[in-house]
Amino acid sequence: MPNRTVFFVSDGTGITAETFGNSILAQFPAKHRHVRRPFIDCVEKAQQVADEIAATAQREGKRPIVFITLVNEDVRRIVKESTQGLVLDMFNTFVEPLEAEFGVKSNHRVGRFSDVAKSEEYNDRIEAINFSLAHDDGQSARNLESADVILVGVSRSGKTPTSLYLAMQHGIKAANYPLIPEDFERGQLPSSLAPHKRKCFGLSIDPERLCQIRNERRPDSKYAALENCRWEVRQAEAMMRREGIGWLSSTHKSIEEIATTILRDIRPDRLIY
User: Would you say residue 167 has pLDDT above 50?
Assistant: First the structure.
């Protein structure tokens, strides 16, 4: 299958268009060239993008694929009618049927993040990000009672990126704590985590993969040695089983998959999941 140029055109950040578009493109065995065009919120910008798409089609001899999330009708019409690409209008695909079903018009709000100062959801996410940064890698044990989830696992098992993803995408206050050899020698969770055990969720990882990751950070160290990785993973999994903490292996899972599993299992009160 020939590669194509793919445009993501939005009147906002383009995150929705790109996320949805990439999910669809992942079903096809090709590596496409991605072109992002955010904040296309007026007729002049729309015409510039339409001209760029037409020039790409002429240069490459194949029409580009164009994912759009555009609310303004004049802007959307220019991009749809003036291009030489295959235009996939994601908002209209879903908004118009929902308007008919609900019997009301949508608010036609431009961009997910418009008027963020008044958005409780946005402020919650900012607060969650700050919380996750302050409680990254066991830096602080303060206010753990405010955490929605506390990720535990050996060093480099994926706790930090998962914590930040949960905060940024879902407004989840996620702390994370690395289980270290001293914890295994004591045979129990650190005292700071014990009162919050019901909030803990564990991440494990294949020792061979852990060895590779740690060698990139500290090559030829005991920390990165395969035997040490095997011992730490074995001890961490035994502790999580002993303490009744749910866990999964991050080895072959994306951050999105890990986060979805955590959300499914912790089900914070403010989320219906």
Answer: yes
Phi-psi region of 57 (alpha: psi -120 to 50; beta: other; left: phi over 0): alpha
Q: How far apart are CA 208 and CA 231, in angstroms?
A: 12
Closest CA to 150 of 14, 266, 13, 7: 266
List the one residue out of 22, 13, 31 whose CA is nearest residue 69: 13
CA distance 17 to 6: 11
pLDDT in tens, 107-166: 766 555 555 555 778 888 899 999 999 999 999 888 899 999 999 999 999 999 999 999
Q: Give the pLDDT confidence score for residue 272 in this predicted structure.
A: 44
pLDDT in tens, 193-221: 999 999 999 999 999 999 999 999 999 99
Domains along the sequence of the chain with CATH? 5-102 (3.40.50), 119-266 (3.40.50)
Does pTM top 0.85 for this prediction?
Answer: no
d(CA 21, CA 8): 8
Nearest in space to 173 (alpha carbons), one of 130, 220, 137: 130
Joined tokens for residue 122: 């946005």
| Helix intervals (H) in 12-119 | 15-25, 43-60, 73-82, 90-102
CA distances in angstroms from 195 to 34, 66, 131, 143, 191, listed in the order given: 48, 52, 19, 12, 8
Distances (CA, A) of 97 to 91, 103, 104: 10, 10, 11
For the beta sheet containing 5-10, the strands, ordered from the edge strand earlier in sequence to the opposite edge, are 33-37, 5-10, 65-69, 86-89
Residue 58 pLDDT level (bands cut at 50, 70, 90): very high
